Recover the amino acids of this structure.
DNA sequence: TTACATAGTGTTATATTATAACAAATTTTA
DNA sequence: TAAAATTTGTTATAATATAACACTATGTAA
């Protein structure tokens, strides 16, 4: 009975890459990931990007578009990345996923005047975090 | 009396690139721009990226982060890109800048529980536009 | 259990997006 | 007009991402 690639389980590469992102305190870039996992046998960009694509698709991680970097999902309410919001410090680069039910509901219910029905949104807030303000 | 680089005026390259983006009905990518303006003497990527950086900085254009592409600003309320929102069709790639005072106010007033004060936000909505729904 | 379909892997090469660094010209400010 | 700031032109290269192909592993269903 070998490893099974079922509903919620991750493949070997996906698991390696998810673990790395999940334990990171900051967003990771694809090539940073690549360099970090080369000792584990993941040697080429496509292996990383494929795992990243799948992890994004299944909502285990999110891409921070303004940084081309990836963070683990910390929000059970984002429903496979249909409603994502982040706060980003422009000084230390820290990224925090925002879990705010009101915000999420407000935006999920928002409808464009021009009649487009939205399936998904991504919101990125920028500022200086508490920590950096002190310095 | 030569050309003047005053407050609101654009330099030669900036103007050429702004005009191109401004008359485009869809977001333009940096290298698409580069190829389009080569006959006007703009031959290398840094010339394009520098103009783009400046135009973004002054709020004449916005970058659509999820597409690495640029659109002209259509919203006098976004105040030099401090409060940007877009609707993006996942089928035809059309991008529309959203000018919604309520939305803008709501988000500008939003404050993170963790005490971070936001200076700026960017919001991208995704869906299928009216036109594409019909097809 | 076999066979078929689907998903994942490994690999090489290449495409796409973006910046570094430096010399020269133009424009603004004082 | 001299100094400062901005813009330009240029070459080279860095960083991000995908195409294509051969192969292996897993899941599904007769």
């Amino acid at each position: 009975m070998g490893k099974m690639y079922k509903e919620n389980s991750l493949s070997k590469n996906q698991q390696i890459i998810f673990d790395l992102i999940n334990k990171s305190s900051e967003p990771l870039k694809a090539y940073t990931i690549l360099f970090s996992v080369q000792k584990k046998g993941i040697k080429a960009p496509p292996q990383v990007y494929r795992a990243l694509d799948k992890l994004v698709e299944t909502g285990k991680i999110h891409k921070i578009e303004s940084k081309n970097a990836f963070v683990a999902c910390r929000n059970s309410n984002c429903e496979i990345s249909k409603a994502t919001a982040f706060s980003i410090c422009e000084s230390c680069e820290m990224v925090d996923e925002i879990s705010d039910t009101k915000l999420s509901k407000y935006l999920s219910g928002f409808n464009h005047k021009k009649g487009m029905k939205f399936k998904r949104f991504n919101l990125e807030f920028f500022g200086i975090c508490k920590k950096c303000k002190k310095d």
Remarks:
- The mean pLDDT of chain B is 92.
- The two ends of chain B are 55 Å apart (CA to CA).
